[in-house]
User: What shape does this take?
Amino acid sequence: MLRLITRRLIFAVVTLWVVSIVVFSAIELLPGDACQAFLGQMAQGKRLENCRVEHDLNAPAYARYSKWAIGLASGDLGKSIKRSKPLEEIIGPRFRNTVILGLTAALVGIPLAIVLGALAALYRDRRADLWISFIAIFCMTVPEFIIGTLLISFFSVWLGWLPGIVIMRADAPLLDVLSKIVLPVMTLTLVMVAHIMRMVRTSMIDVLASDFVMMSQLKGVSRLRQVVMHALPNALLPTINLIALNIAWLMGGVLVVEVVFNYPGIGRLSVNAISDRDFPLVQAIALLMASLYVALNLIADLLALVLNPKLRTRGAKV
Amino acid sequence: MTGSLLSIENLSIGFTGLNDQPIFIVRDVNLTLAAGETLGLVGESGCGKSSLLLAMMGYYKQGLGRLRGGIAYDGQDPGLVSSQQLQALRGGGMALIPQNAGQALTPTLRIKAQMVEVLRLHSDLAPGAWHARCLALFERVKLPDPEEMLERYPHELSGGQQQRVAIAMALAGEPDLLLLDEPTTGLDVTTQVGVLSLLQEICRDLNTAMVYVSHDIQVISQVCNQIAIMYAGEIVEMGPRADLLNQPVHPYTQGLLASIPRLDQQTLPHPIAGEMLQPVHRGSNVGCGYAGRCALATDQCREIAPLAQPIADRWVKCHEVTAARAGEFIRPAQKLLAPNLSDSELLAVEDLSVRYQAPTWLQSLRGQQPPAIVRAVSFGIRKGEIKGLVGESGSGKSTILKTIAGLQPSLSGRITLSGTDDLAGPVESRPRRCLRKVQLVFQNPDASLNPRKTTGEILRRPLELYFDLGPGVMDEEVDALLQRVNLPESYKGRFPGQLSGGEKQRVAIARALAAKPELILCDEITSALDVSVQAAILKLLLDLRADSGVSLLFVSHDLAVVETLCDSVLVLEGGEVREAGSCAEVFKNPQHAYTQALLASVL
Ligand SMILES: Nc1ncnc2c1ncn2[C@@H]1O[C@H](COP(=O)(O)OP(=O)(O)O)[C@@H](O)[C@H]1O
Ligand code: SF4
Ligand SMILES: [Mg+2]
Assistant: This one.
């Protein structure tokens, strides 16, 4: 077990290292350098030279890579070319906003998806199941921006209950943020719930037909307990990775939703960084996203390990 | 009925098929059980045993339901009581011990949680006393190391241990009635003996009533005083154990008993012609359900369903009781003749070792080896010889077969065919001549026959592969093959899904024969079949050997089958040969302690 975890951890670190090399060399391989790209037409003479000196571009690639990598390891992401602030201060608040939005959506959506999936399985092919499945398929097939727009026209234009777009500074205080993100959270929740719920339903239907659920019923266990104690934990095992993937998707900043609601998150920042040709910023965001995926997958695997006794046993091979 | 613990009257279970016609899975069953009584329910797979047993708990599998009739447990019908009463009844009044305990235990819950669940629901014990009670129950069912067992998850237990946990769990609610659904099927014989003696002990000590369902009448006769024989959803004969075993009356009971291979009999078990019809096919049948296979069947049998007739302490559903009791329709058992084996050796296996895993780099660094599954096995097979390979599950029987067939590389050792052909290499590297000579038949024909090919196409494949035949000759050849395995020529056009289990296995054997092999490797090929069908396959194999002189290597866990069929036997334990010799010697006078233990477990 311990060996397994260590192995996974080492694997995660190696993955990140490889990703950092790929990200660094991708930018390196572009014609010219970061300053040339940023300055474009004006990339000449003193201006270019100053920029290069300021961002230390005259050193050989391996030296710059190791400086960058060491900085990353100690939490220093580097400097933006366009904005004179350190990257942490640019990325920090926006990433925080994305995390707030994503976490709220996850906290609302995942339990909801599990409950709905289980209910749909329990009432399989009856009216409740048909409705749940119909709405889920609708949410899965309709793009996020249409769902977002529909919600805006219903809740803010028609009912006038909620603001249609988010107007706030990137570093607004937490409570302020929370009060403004009801509609974006609803949009994300609808999309995510649909995916997870479908899988929980399928998996739950299999488990409900298993010998051990029948056996628990024939032991005289109540229906609620059969479902919660015997069926559900086994039905969730195969969905853990899908849930992790969805969280990673949320944490990456769902661009469409951020654009529709004018939300200052990491998704919009990355688009701005690319259109500004601010390569250090692009690099830092790319690496952040990669670490997020690796970390969430690691957590999902470890969680599967904790929840599935079969994987936990000594000597079990994964 | 008063005074009985459980009574079932005219119970029919099934579903409504096309045209609103009822399809019966269980039909017009009557039985009563007094407190402390033990009843065995015997029948072939698919005859409705499990459905009947589950109905006693008021449970019907998805899509099934009670069509008519009544069930009364302690005066209450489990189908009519409130859900609270039903929950109290299940696990408290009567408890189920399922067929496959490994799948009936919830994988994500510790054993303790699952035991305590029953105690909380069905006992008056204070929570503080639960742990001690669990330990006591585990000692009762002779689980080693009870403390440790409670902390484990189901997959951390062996099959036998899981079955004991299931028994302990059933006993935890102190039920008056235990319902057992094939609780030892799938266990190794030595484990089975232990579980059976435990069940006998429980009956004796706790005076619990039991309904024990099994396809194996020998297992039933170990535990039960009353036996009911089920066929095609009906109980056809029911009475005290000794009466039924010694003087079976119903033609099916007689046929069933005659088809069981037994040790020390030197006779061929007698098959029953044909196979049991599936419920959908017997739907409109108004006569006796057994008429299609019965040697005594008359027109009356086909038109009028026989009613239960009492005979002394038992009753029988048959029109021809007098003729049946005369018992002349079953031919006297055929004596087995010792074949004249030539001395020439067909297959020689020398010092064969096999392992599945290659060493990991860490192991090779430390100079360690993963354990071999088969270790230094040597034996020979002569032309026309049938050699049995016996041992418990995991002893390496199938591995040896796969290695000879070239599906599994060997670690060391030599395999030679006809003295010259080297079979060391994998299938791909073998010359076609060698491939043709060795054919393999698997346990499960469903997995080995392509469901989208007709029988004719399946048989044509090896013919095309090994022989250069014209189309006319090819068709004749396919017909001849079907004839050799006693299937009608019309089966050419059928798909495997349209065949019964025994027929599929015949097709699989015919496919092996198509290559005109010198050696057929048989991996538990009769284990999935009912005894009445198995007997016919055994006879077929003996006939094939007599006709063509083919040799067989026959893997089985059933010693009686091996003794009936084989000339010589190899006893395997943990990948090593424990004993080898002619069947007569080994079974009469076993030398190795392991062989003795195996033989002692045969019921
Ligand atoms: N849920 C079901 N729906 C329809 N037919 C079923 C169902 N379950 C079992 N059967 C059929 O009922 C018959 C009896 O099944 P079962 O009671 O399991 O027999 P046994 O335990 O004797 O092997 C079989 O022919 C099987 O195909
Ligand atoms: S009723 Fe007729 S067909 Fe049925 S078992 Fe008796 S003799 Fe055979
Ligand atoms: Mg069954």
Remarks:
- The first helix of chain B runs from residue 49 to 56.
- The pocket of iron/sulfur cluster (ligand 2) is lined by residues B 251, 288, 290-291, 294, 296-297, 301, 306, 318-320 (CB under 6 Å).
- Chain B touches chain A at residues 54, 57, 59, 62, 86-92, 95-96, 98, 100, 103-109, 117-118, 121-122, 153, 155-156, 169, 173 (CB under 8 Å).
